[in-house]
Every structure is written in structure tokens, then in C-alpha cells.
Amino acid sequence: MLKVGVVGTGSISEFHIKPYLANEEVELVALCDLNGERLAEKGRIYGVGQLYTDYRELLKNTEIDAISICTWNNSHAEIAIAALESGKHVLVEKPLCMTVDEALAVEAAAKKSGKILQVGFVRRHGDNAGLLKRFIDDGDLGEIYYAKASCLRRLGNPGGWFSDQTKSGGGPLIDLGVHMIDICWYFMGKPRPVTVSGNSYSKLGNRSHIQNLSFYQAADYDPSLNDVEDLTNALIRFENGASLMVDVSFTLQAKKDELYVKLFGDKGGAEIEPELSIIGEKHDTILNMTPQIDSLTFDFEKAFYNEINHFVSCCIEGKESIAPVSDGVQVMKMLNAVYESARTGKEVVL
Fold it and tell me: Is-contact 196 347, C-beta < 8 A?
């Protein structure tokens, strides 16, 4: 039986807590949050008796085998390192942390501890992603040399800690772009990034004046606080010659929201957003193939169950996660390089 604690009980935590409670090999024994009132409420809702307002006290609990980190981005590295040093396995929400130096420190701590550190790249765990990966691994797309991804919100700055640079480390790039870049890079075979060129814009703010159109707002939403970008785009080149284009926004003067992920290989292509489609050739004819599966789209909740169950099995069986700390380091290098390129106006060589 794996005994687990969850650090941070904000909105994303329920997507960790519920799968833990549903897993017969897990006992959820502790919750931690700086907000004592919210902590007590979550403890009542989920029937968890051990409640901590200081993660250090939770880590002193020797019966806890593993933790999920669901806190602000600026605390990910600190908590992950402390947890690893205390002998606990760690699942940390994306992004791994805020800087490359932090990422390397977490990686070093994971190697030294011998414990599992899994990064919350939840889109890797979607059922549609798992199926597409089988096609890719079997060579059906051939060499994937180009990918493009877009996650554009016309109105969707969640505010709160998401729009506070000191807590988030950035705006749509580090919140949404981390998923877009990671899932493309993962399907492309995780080639080594060599150059990054990016642009970042802060033109519209959080557009809190807009009426008649609702959008998700963080629990601590404050329209007066916003120092993150509206839009970021990037071109990433890889050592094997492949390239990736990505753009993401919290707000944009666009007709509608847009989400797509497209992959192009020398034998076939694929789209996984907005829904899974595989493109190929047979008998001198181009085929657009639609797999007959329960859900062609990304099932957010199911993917979290898959992710948590995978983490649990890795902790119990000792096998490597499909989202290891080394991948978190590489993605952080790409994210930081995009911001650096946008800030300097120059291409960054990794």
C-alpha cells in the first residue's frame, strides 16, 4: 500500500486527490496547504485527517511514501528537492519549476535519492496520445520532421497566481505552452533542441472590462494584478533537423479560441488536437484515417487518472516513468530559451 500526501489543495489538486482515492493500492493520508481554512474544508470533503500548513512538517511524516506537488510554480523545486531528500517519491505538476538551474538541482536530487520524480505532463497520458504513440513507435509516420501547435484563448487570463510573475514564472507560455511544446517534442522522439527564436507580447492585459463572455478565474483573481505576457510564439530547431512552431495566448483579438497539435512525417502525419486523426498513403492515394475509439479528443479527467495510476505503479514497481525528471529539464530549457529570445530579440543557442 502506497501512502501518499498532497501538497497544495487548489483547483488542480482534485485531479490528483480523486484518482488516489480510487486507487486500491493507495492510502491518501495527508494534505497540506498554506490556507488553513481551505485545508480544513478539503480534509472534510475527502476524509483526510492529517492536515499540515507547512510542507516541511508533512515531509517529517515517515509513513508517507510519495507526494504530489500542486502548488504555485515558484515553490515546485524547493518542495520537490526537500521531498526527495526525505526519501519520498514525487509527482510534480507542470512546469517542473521556473528556471533551468532549479530544474538541474531537482534532477540532481532525484538521481541522488534514487526515488521516482514524475513531471505532470498529463497530455502524454491521454488515451488518444497512447494510441498515437503506438502508431509512431511502429514507424507509421516515419521521420517526424515538423510539428506545429497552437493554443489560443481570445479571453482567458485566469488571474490570481497565474498572472503574478513571481509565483508563475510567466503567462501562457509556461502555463499552456509547456503542454504544447512537450506533447509535440514527445511524439517527435524527444530530439535535442539546439536553437530557439521567440516573441512575446503584452498588449491587452487581462481584459477584465469585457462583459457578456465568461472565462475561468483563479480563486484569488484580482483584475489589478497582471504582469505576464498575453501571447508568445516560438520556432524551435532540433539537432536532427526537425522543427517545431508554437503559439499560445491568454488573450488575443481573435474570432474564437483555437487549439490544435499537428505532426508531419515522411510516411504519414497526425493531428491529436482538436481530435485524433492519422494521415497516410496507400495505393497512390492519400488517406485521412479516423480511429474508432471511445474518445478522439483529450479526456482531461481520464488522463489524470492514467497519470496518477502510472505514478503509483512506478513507485511500487520501481520502473521509470514515461515523464521523467530529465524530460522536465529539457522542456524547461526550451521554455526559458523562448523567454530569453523574446527579451533579447535574438535567437538563443542551447
Answer: yes
Distance in angstroms (rounded) separating the CA atoms of residues 214 and 210:
9
Q: Are strands 285-289 and 277-282 parallel, antiparallel or unpaired?
A: antiparallel
Rounded CA separation 103/114 (Å): 16
pLDDT tens, position by position, 296-324: 999 999 999 999 999 999 999 999 999 99
Per-residue model confidence as pLDDT tens digits over 42-53: 999 999 999 999
Q: Return phi, psi of residue 158, to 5°.
A: -70, -15
In the block, which residue shows the cell 492529517? 50
C-alpha cell at 318: 520501481
CA 26 to chain centre: 23
Q: What is the distance between the alpha carbons of residues 194 and 145, in angstroms, rounded to a whole number?
A: 14
d(CA 95, CA 334): 12
Strands 258-265 and 269-273: antiparallel
Phi, psi of 321 (to 5 degrees): -70, 155
User: Is residue 32 left, alpha or beta, with left meaning phi > 0 and alpha meaning psi from -120 to 50?
Assistant: beta
Q: How many CB atoms lie within 10 A of CB 260?
A: 15
Q: 57-75: per-residue pLDDT in tens?
A: 999 999 999 999 999 999 9
Cell of 79: 518542495
Q: Count of H helices and E strands in the chain?
A: 11, 15
Q: What's the pLDDT at 85? A: 98
The string of pLDDT tens digits covering residues 242-283 is 999 999 999 999 999 999 999 999 999 999 999 999 999 999
pLDDT tens for 111-131 read 999 999 999 999 999 999 999
Contacts of 348 (CB under 8 A, 6+ apart): 195, 196, 197, 198, 337, 340, 341
Give the Cα separation of 197 and 339 in Å (integer).
9
Helices (H), 97-145: 100-113, 127-137
Residues 330, 317: contact at Cβ < 8 Å? no
pTM for the complete prediction? Answer: 0.96
